[in-house]
Amino acid sequence: MNPKHIEFPVLGAKWFIGFTALSHTAVASLAIGFAFIVTIAQIIGYLDKDRSYDLLAKRIQLFHVCIYNIGTIVAIGLVFGLSGLYPQFWSQLFVHQFWTLILEEFLFFLLATTLTFHYFFWDHLWGHKKLHIFLGALLTPLFLLQFYLINGIGGFMLTPGFQEGQASLSQGILGWDKQAFYNPSFLMLTLHRTFANISYGGFVVAGLCGAMLFRPNSGAIKACYEKGGHLSFAVAFIALLSLPIVGYFYSYVLKYEANEAFVNLMWGKGDVIAGGIDWWWIKHLCVAGMLGMTLTYFWHEDTADSRFSMPLVMIVTIGLFYLIFYMSMGMIMTWKFFWIMLAFALIGGLLARHLVSFHKGSPRALYVLVGIISFLTVMLGGYVREASRPRFVNRIAHYDKIYTPAERAPYLMVDVDPRTIPPPPEAIEKPSLAVQLIRQKCIGCHTLERVRNYRLDNWELIVDQMRAYGLKLATTEAEIIITHLREKQPY
Amino acid sequence: MKSNNNPEDETIDSTGKQDMNASTILSEDENNESGKEVSQSKSSHPWEVELGVYPLRPAAEDPKWAIRLVKSWAVIAVLSGIFVIALLILGFFFD
How far apart are CA B70 and CA B80, in angstroms? Predict the structure, then answer.
């Protein structure tokens, strides 16, 4: 009897996992930003003896306790879903990185307890405020550790690496695999996710403060939410500074270590396109619009009495970094991408000015709008990241090679006859070496469209020119590229 | 882009703090009828009565069991974090 897969009704297995994972992302991504802002607000409140920061911090932490529970429960749902719908994949991943996942669970316990104690002992420790702040401050590094651990596994699924790293896919490595954990995209994923989540958490807190500013409260309460909104907005904005730099190196790693994912993202292929829409573009439209809004907000901010005003140099630096980032993206993708991003940033800036003047100087609507857009950005970023990579497994797949039934049979609860396991899915056709070289080398300076639009046939001269411009290309590689282009083969 | 407070909020000073007596705010025991009346007459928002002061209190008034519990947990959390970091460092050198 052939093993049957469990099929999830209506959504199907893939979309159920995607939906659950994104639901988890929506709330879990807020955690580090919330923890960081709570600590900052508590410290400011303590130093200034200003109760409003402390009250805001407590309210944020209450929200955090609630969403942490929801996020954890959804994560358990994801584990259940993977266990039933992708049993071979999940069991193998668990066996492969058992100790990593056990440490992750240990950190969940530490974080949940610390978070709960921090919130529920708030009023018990008024005489020991420093101790209470220290307890809350522990959350940020613990969340960083948790990121660190899960990113080793997440990065491995995107960039398994070469040589020793690839051995993980064909050998029975149990419990801990250093090469797999410290995979090529591990560092960039960790940096990008950390700063992006701090930014996301900050914008969401500002959005919540903005929503509260719509309520008919007294001036004292409004001033309280304005302070909180402004502080969170500033923290989120500073975190934005790192993202184009990290993003650039992240895409650089993908280009060489996960070329298929890179191509899918940059040229809109595979599941990155869903419903005829390129969600990677939509994500960047959101980022560009958000950037325009935040830059305008801090640029025009009245700094006379503002505690957390941004230095002009920082505003200009963030603007320039993103401009350079989108220019490099424009070179790789299309220049249309660059101009559309620029247009959205300008529209965002104009909209920000309009919203603030419409609300008589109050940034409440801007806070809410940016909070919503940052939520969309995180959701879309999470989706395209997973959608872009080649399928790690296709239900029951080649992972069975690692899970040797003969050795593991005594420990299996289900007796599986290896002959009944379907063969691994057909390998995804890898592009030829010539195509890989053209994609990797040419887009360092210009789009592939430019290559395609070139009408003459003097490729030897062109490639020599490119090498003279600084393109690092071995002679054999140059010959492969010239032959491919001369034969007018697709790439 | 500083926000403008509404005209009806003119009783609030520039720091957003209300000029309130600390005795109406600090402890539940002291939150007497007059304190409630003050808060209700100003606004129904529960923060109104708390915003005015930063209610530090003498360390001796904090419940001892809570301090012991939180201190113990902080030590456990720090040591656990160091333990996890040590494992990751060891894992980097030993496969």
Answer: 15
Cα separation, A44 vs A41, in Å, equals 5
| In contact, A77 and A252? CB cutoff 8 Å | no
* Rounded CA separation A309/A307 (Å): 6
Query: What does the pLDDT look like over A272-323, one tens digit per residue?
Result: 998 899 999 999 999 999 999 999 998 887 654 566 778 888 888 888 888 8
Rounded to whole angstroms, the Cα distance separating A283 from A375 reads 10
Nearest to A115 by CA among A190, A60, A45, A46: A60
Tokens for A132, please give them.
């209470």
Burial zone of B28 (CB within 10 Å; 0-12 exposed, 13-18 middle, 19+ buried): exposed
**CATH fold of A433-486:** Cytochrome Bc1 Complex; Chain D, domain 2 (1.10.760)
Instruction: Find the CB nearest A219 among B12, B77, B91.
Output: B12
Residue A403 pLDDT > 50: no
Closest CA to A52 of B14, B89, B74: B14
Model confidence pLDDT, tens digit, residues A411-452: 444 445 556 555 555 555 677 888 888 888 887 777 777 788
CA A30, A121, A74, B77 torsion: positive or negative? Answer: positive
Give the amino acid at B20.
Answer: M
**Residues near A342 by Cβ (< 8 Å), separated by ≥ 6?**
A288, A323, A326
For chain A, the helix, strand and coil percentages under 3-state DSSP, each to the nearest 5: 75, 0, 25
Q: What is the ipTM of this complex?
A: 0.76
Provide, as residue numbers in chain B, all residues whose Cβ is less than 8 Å from the Cβ of A49. Answer: 54, 56
Residue ranges covered by each domain of chain A: 12-388, 433-486
Per-residue pLDDT averaged across A257-282, rounded? 88
Residue scoring higher pLDDT (A379 or B44): A379
φ, ψ of residue A5 in degrees (nearest 5):
-85, 150
Which position has the token pair 């923060």?
Answer: B47
Question: A52-58 — which CB contacts under 8 Å span 24+ positions?
Answer: A52/A223, A52/A224, A52/A227, A52/A228, A52/B16, A52/B17, A52/B51, A53/A227, A53/A228, A53/A231, A54/B54, A55/A224, A55/B47, A55/B50, A55/B51, A56/A209, A56/A224, A56/A225, A56/A227, A56/A228, A57/A136, A58/A119, A58/A122
Question: Could you tell me which chain A residue has the CA closest to the CA of B58?
Answer: A127
Is B74 in contact with A221 (Cβ distance < 8 A)? Answer: no
Q: Which residues of B touch A182 (CB under 8 A)?
A: 92
User: What is the C-alpha to C-alpha distance for residues A193 and A247, in angstroms, rounded to an integer?
Assistant: 10
Contacts of residue A140 in chain B, CB cutoff 8 Å? Answer: none
Helix pair A12-28, A364-388: axis angle to 10 deg? 140
Q: How confident is the model at residue A401 (pLDDT cuts 50, 70, 90)?
A: very low
Is the alpha carbon torsion for A380, A383, A386, A391 positive or negative? negative
- pLDDT beyond 60 at A261: yes
The β-bridge relationship of strands A273-274 and A277-278 is antiparallel
- Domain coordinates of chain B in residue numbers? 1-56, 58-95
> What average pLDDT does this structure show over A158-184?
70
Determine the Cα–Cα distance for residues B88 and B95; give it in Å rounded to an integer.
11
